[in-house]
Write a structure and sequence with these properties.
The structure is a single chain. The protein is α+β, with helices and mostly antiparallel strands and about 160 residues long. It has two domains: about 100 residues, L1 transposable element, RRM domain (Alpha-Beta Plaits), CATH 3.30.70.1820; about 45 residues, no CATH class. The chain has five helices and six strands; from the N terminus they run αβαββαβαββα. A hairpin with a 2-residue loop joins β5 and β6. The longest helix has 19 residues. The chain is globular and about 45 Å long. The N and C termini lie far apart (about 65 Å).
């Protein structure tokens, strides 16, 4: 039952994104939060948010109690393709202290925490590594693949003085 409940919860979060780093105003309304999210989409991600339908945008967690604190915003898009358009452009946020992530269930977030050390170790070895949903994906770099191929092909060549 727990797995089924986690699956259903994950499905309900399918069009959601969590935006971290947008300054929060005291007693900020849902409309103000949505306007700030739309500003980030338009100005920082260079997308047209007027074509995106945001069902809801609100702050999560405890209210900051003072203006200017950077808080988490939960954004629910009507269309999955709008969510994915925003996610594809998040590289444009580099250096802004604004971060956009998918809204995962607590079980998936816990799995991420467990996989992060293995992902960092793979990256230190020079592999391309990332976490997708609740799985660690590791791809050897092109240089490592070429080194492996050249080593394997050298082993297959006959040695000098050997009879074939």
């Amino acid at each position: 039952m727990t797995e089924k409940a986690d699956y259903l919860e994950g499905q309900t979060r399918g069009n959601n994104l969590v935006v971290d780093g947008i300054p929060e105003a005291q007693n900020e309304s849902w409309k103000e939060t949505e306007d700030k999210v739309r500003y980030v989409i338009n100005e920082k991600l260079h997308l047209d948010s007027s074509q995106m339908v945001i069902e809801r945008a609100h702050r999560t967690g405890n209210p900051s109690g003072y203006s200017g604190k950077r808080g988490l915003s939960l954004v629910k898009f009507l269309r999955y393709k709008d969510k994915m358009a925003v996610l594809r452009k998040t590289k444009d946020l580099k250096g802004t202290n604004i971060y956009v992530n998918e809204d995962y269930t607590e079980a998936v977030r816990q799995k991420h925490k467990e996989l992060i050390p293995a992902m960092k170790a793979a990256r230190e070895r020079g592999d391309i590594a990332y976490i997708r949903h609740d799985k660690l994906i590791v791809h050897p770099t092109a240089q490592k693949q070429e080194d492996t191929k050249s080593t394997n092909s050298q082993e297959l060549e006959p040695r000098a003085g050997s009879r074939d």
